[in-house]
Amino acid sequence: MRIAVVGPLEFPGRQGGMTRHIEEVYARLAADGHDVTVFCRRAPAGREYRGLHVRTVPAPSRSPFDRFVYGLVASARAAVGRFDVVHYHSYSNSGGCFLPALARRPVVMTVHRLEWLDEKWDRLGRAVLLANAWITHRAARAFIAVSAEFEAFVRSHVPASRTVVRIPNGITLPDAVDADAPEWFGLVNDAYLLAVSRLVPEKGIDVCCDALDLLAARGVGLLPVVVAGRARTPTEYSERLEARVARTPGPVALLGVQPAPVVHGLYRGARALVAPSRREGNPLTVIEAMAHGCCVVASDIPPHRELLGDTGILVPVDDAAALADALERVIADPAAARALGARARARIEASEYQWDDVAARTAAVLGSVAR
Fold first, then answer.
1. Pseudo-torsion of CA 82, 83, 84, 88, nearest 10°?
2. What is the DSSP letter of 63?
3. Which of 107, 134, 239, 312 could form a disulfide with 296 if both were Cys (CB 3.0 to 4.6 A apart)?
4. pLDDT over threshold 90, residue 196
């Protein structure tokens, strides 16, 4: 198949679950002989990467509507290219999918998130996103949802004749894991908490700061907390959060974006991953932490429940007091945290979260539409 992919602003990218999903799936499809072209705004690795053709399209770099413009331009390129199928990732990119559809290029959509729920969008941005979804639900022939929650959403919004399947994200540990990563940041194995997150409102890092305030007021001895990740571009929220972190009791460090071997080394050495998200799709950070046997303390939202079952600690969304209680348990009882991590690892290893399987199932959906 000749496949066009519309999704990442930067490819390859060092953070963002959707971009990593695209890389892992399509590198495998390319290795199987498919011809894959990824459209993006910026290509730091050049025009060829892991067997994929990477083509840049013009889009504004510092605008809240960068994804909308990128999606329209990439759609136009896909419509005139010689492709058997055009695969979209993210509703923010998919408003132009009617262009390849009109050119008789079959369209497939993978739903990673319901972006209009994110706090960063104003009324106009949400209206555009909902319009994109309305167009996509009518133009696409098949839909892939990364979680059961999103599968149910799509089924309730598209005709019964459309193909809708659930295919989650996968996990492949890197060949090189930097076992010394904690030491680089002055940390001791099993004696720090980790968050791997962009600095955006939906990830809830501010709730973690509030929980640490409460623990300090209780006199609990705090473990160091490190956050790997940053905002894609600085925002009012990310700047406020950085100032908030500086006032938070106990050592809290924003590490910025780190190479994959370092992040996986941090997973391996952490007492627990803290994931207080307000919204998620099928979070790769939680999947990766589970694969390393890291205890996960997460918000009680459907994607986290689906992944963790009873192998993690779930707390109500936006409840700093409940998060503080959970973190106090983890701090006080390292053996219990390690036991939860071991159960989480067994759960993820026995499940469908393997990239080879994800890629094969994705290829089957694309192939059925292309035929």
1. -160
2. -
3. 312
4. yes
